[in-house]
Every structure is written in C-alpha cells, then in structure tokens.
Amino acid sequence: MRFDLITLHPEICAAPVQHSIIGRARDAGHISVAVHDMRRWAIGRHRQADDTPYGGGSGMVLRVDVVDRAIDAVRGETGHVVLMEPSGVPFTQRQAVRLASLEHLVFVCGHYEGIDDRVRQHLVDETLSIGDYVLTGGELAALVVLDAVARLIPGVLGNADSIKDESFSHGLLEYPHFTRPRSYRGWDVPGVLISGHHARIARWRKEQARLRTLAIRPDLAGQEGSASHAGKDPDSGVGEPSA
Ligand code: ADE
Fold first, then answer.
1. What ranges do the domains of the chain cover?
2. Which of 111, 102, 49 is nearest to 77 (CA)?
3. CA 20 to 30 Å from 80, out of 32, 162, 177, 201?
4. pLDDT tens digits, one per residue of 84-116
5. What is the pTM of this model?
C-alpha cells in the first residue's frame, strides 16, 4: 500500500515513518511512504501557501489553488485523498480497517487557522479527525491514521494474532496482559492465567474485556463485533494468546 503526505512541515513527518514497525515495513516493501513539501506548489518567490480570510477574522487560511496543485501532482490514478482537520469525520478502528483495503492514500495536512473550504468541497474524497481536540496542524493526525492503517496491512506486523485480539477488534477493549515475574512487590498475576486451563483462560479474558469496557468505555459496550476486521464471527480468536 502506498501513502503520501502533503504538508507544510515535512520535517515533522519524517522521523515517525523511518523507525520501528513502520520503518521496517517500508524497508521490507510492504508499504511505501512519501512526504511532500506543499511549498513546492506555493505562490511566488516567498512560496506563500496561505492568505487572510475573506470576511475578516484572525489567522491565515491555506489557499485552495496551492492545495489543488499539490493534490494534482501527487494523487495519480489511484490516490484516495483524505483531508485531516478537527471538523472531519471521527477516525475509528472501523475506519482504519476500511482504509486498509485501499491501495493508495493521500493525506492533506491542514495548518494554521484553517484551510479554504473549497478543498473539502471539491478536492478531497473524505475528511477525518482523530479526536475532539485541536492540534496545531494535521501532521500528527495524518501520522496517527497512517500508523493505524499500515499495521493492518499483511506482513507489517509479524504476528497476525495480535491484531485479532486487540482493543476494538471485537468492539471491546482488550483484556489485560501479564508476563514474568509472576509476583512483583506483592502484585500477583491472576491465578487463572497460570492454571493452564485454556477454556477457563478464554472465559476469564472475555469477561475482563467486558468489565473493562463497561468501566472505561460504556459507550462501546453492547457493540460487540461491530468493529471486527476479522470477518463475521466476533468470537473468532478470543482466548488465544496474543503474544
Ligand atoms: N488538525 C488539527 N486538529 C486535528 C484533529 N483533531 N484531527 C485531524 N486533524 C487535525
């Protein structure tokens, strides 16, 4: 899968896509990532990409013509163009699964006070927001979406089971994990996990996931299976160790 990021701050995007799992996935050829400096398509000697808002108000607004030229140069035949902005559609695991089925994503990172709304109206395929808060720009948001989508691409994560059982994949938060030491400062690993009884462990994990979801995300409870990427059976894989 191919990812392009169009940004006024390419340096912000560079490091997160060079290291760890995403960096290795690029090296292995599972994904490709290109970061494009929007100023290449900006205006005049000063490479201006923004201007004052019509109707007045504070701050500067990203110009539609600059963004249009950038998208035109990058999207090619295949690009599905996503505008990152706080007023976009909420990004969820379900959206990540949907986007992971596409072959080519192009992220447009908004910056400054805003972006000319004709970009949203005419130039992009969709808008996404990563949450109900305002960042200084769309770069970190685009990197969040890229990361969440890329790890779903076959081969990017070594262990496909870790996707099967993780938070949200069944519409619930993930069950708790434990490893050695078995007792630390008097904090013991739950006995059931040492029992070797696979069916009991599976039941315990399922119950823990349900209780945790009820306590922390009651809005998710009752939606079990709704975000499953693994097919129609929301119980598939539950109870198998994830690591
Ligand atoms: N740009 C600024 N804030 C954002 C957010 N919450 N989501 C996506 N893009 C953004």
1. 2-158, 172-224
2. 102
3. 162
4. 999 999 999 999 999 999 999 999 998 867 999
5. 0.89
